[in-house]
Design goal:
By secondary structure, this protein is an alpha/beta fold. It has 10 helices and 13 strands. Strand 8, helix 3 and strand 9 form a beta-alpha-beta unit. The longest helix is centred in the last third of the chain and has 47 residues.
Length: about 350
Amino acid sequence: MQLRELGLDPWFAGLAADRRDATLALARVVAVDRNRYVIRNERGEVPAELTGRLVHATVTAGDLPCVGDWVCARYRNAATVASIHDVLPRRSFIRRKVPGPDVDYQVLAANVDAAFVVQACQFDFNVRRLERYLVMVRDGHVAPIVLLTKTDLVDAAELEQMITRIRLTGLAATIVCVSNVTGMGIDEVRNLMTAGRTYCLLGSSGVGKTTLTNRLIGDARLETRDVSHTGEGRHATTRRQLIVLANGSLLIDMPGMRELGMLGVDAGIDETFTAIGELAKSCRFTDCSHVSEPGCAVRAAVERRELSEEHLRNFLKLRKESLFHELSYVERRKQDKSFGRMVNSVLKQKDRSRRT
């Protein structure tokens, strides 16, 4: 396999030429399971570990390698293992706030061209959650495609109502209806995937991501589990991994996500809520919060029923959440820098003392 078949293009090749020497080889991260890595180049896959120098030079955990990253590695022991020395800059990414109370970024996948945002028609369908996914995807400069799975569990009228609810949000992305039981939409998904380009599947556990991946692969290599009595699938995928499909496209399969915290996603919010952005240009005040100000064009559109009240509420909620976490993140980074300066100062003082 050539590196171009793993997604290497002139942009990444140019970056690699500037950053690696003759002792380092270019490879792509194809699997991450906690702190364990698997990388792949022309000769195949090998386990890899980070060098201590790379770990100490990394500012935040989000800068560490993730699935889809291009890395410079040194192979050892007859090329059976490798050490990762550098990570090339990312062209795109999928990231979220880390789950729980900590305020930091978690990068889930890198260098993704398009993301399939998956929602099941039965238990999982939720327009507000879909908007949250779309914000996350667009903020990382990734094109979204919406997949509505398990369409065999609803009738045609219900399915059409779901599509209408999505369209009322102003979403312009492609929507594909899929059934892993009947095979509906599988060929359409496959035809959207181009050789040498990277795609990922995003969605909650049990929406059919792993089963869909198996159908795209053409075998049952990935583990799936029975669904519960509610129709909700059980968590199957336990690690993020990049798979090369028969048509030459690359697919990243990831575990389902329960938490989708927003952190510093202003660009993604603007791109997802474009209708609100256009209306806001006509508000009386440039800093209008779209809550109670006089002359608010957004509120006026809601009152005329040209804009969904629910759509606006979700916009305000996501913007507030992102701003709150961003302020906390900036404050924490300031504290980290202050602590770093203090440590350096103490070390310098000790060094001067030893010399005298």
